[in-house]
């Protein structure tokens, strides 16, 4: 199963979740809509968002784009919901191939929020080493840019454990 996921930061919600699904919802309601079983690192983001939603959380250095804790928390919860709808579940190991920056922070914390286990692999170590890491870790899911999808096609045997494939298009 391959799903496309547009940028939560740059664009409105894609069709995976109707944009009115979050209309009138508080940050707390959105965050609680997809809940994990164990406390984890993204809980701190949600807690700060509840107390000081306008506090600056992230600044993307190249573009100057800024996110408050309220925006970050809401975005994490929405992405977690959509990853869940794509078929990811708590405790799933998920290979993450997203460039550094706000999107990486959102995807990794969305996986934490969902209760999934991000498998972070440095693509700079070369195709064969990346394939070896994926084969050894046996992730059930893959969340990545289109280049990662090409790698999946080139190294099919290494990626055979992938059951849920989410394309982060344009990220």
Descriptive notes:
This protein has 171 residues and is α/β, with parallel strands linked by helices. Helix content is 40%, strand content 17%. The chain is built from 6 helices and 7 strands. It has helices at residues 27-33, 42-51, 69-86, 102-114, 127-137, 146-154; strands spanning 2-5, 56-59, 66-68, 93-97, 117-120, 141-144, 164-168. A 5-stranded parallel β-sheet has the order 1-7-6-4-5, sandwiched between helices. Helix 6 links the parallel strand 6 (141-144) and strand 7 (164-168). Helix 1 runs parallel beside helix 3, helix 2 packs across helix 3 (69-86) and helix 3 packs across helix 4. The longest helix has 18 residues, at 69-86. The chain is globular, with a radius of gyration of 16 Å. It starts with a strand and ends with a strand. Mean pLDDT is 82; it is low at 5-19.
As a percent range, the share of helical residues equals: 25-40%
Total E-strand runs: 7
Instruction: Name the poorly predicted regions.
Output: 5-19
How much is the radius of gyration in Å? 16 Å
Query: Mean pLDDT, nearest integer?
Result: 82
Give the overall form: globular
Number of helices: 6
SSE ordering:
EHHEEHEHEHEHE
What is the strand arrangement across the widest sheet?
1-7-6-4-5
Structural class designation: alpha/beta
N-end to C-end Cα span: 20 Å
Strand content: 15-25%
Largest sheet: 5 strands, parallel
Keywords:
171 residues, alpha/beta, five-stranded parallel sheet, 6 helices, 40% helix, 17% strand, globular
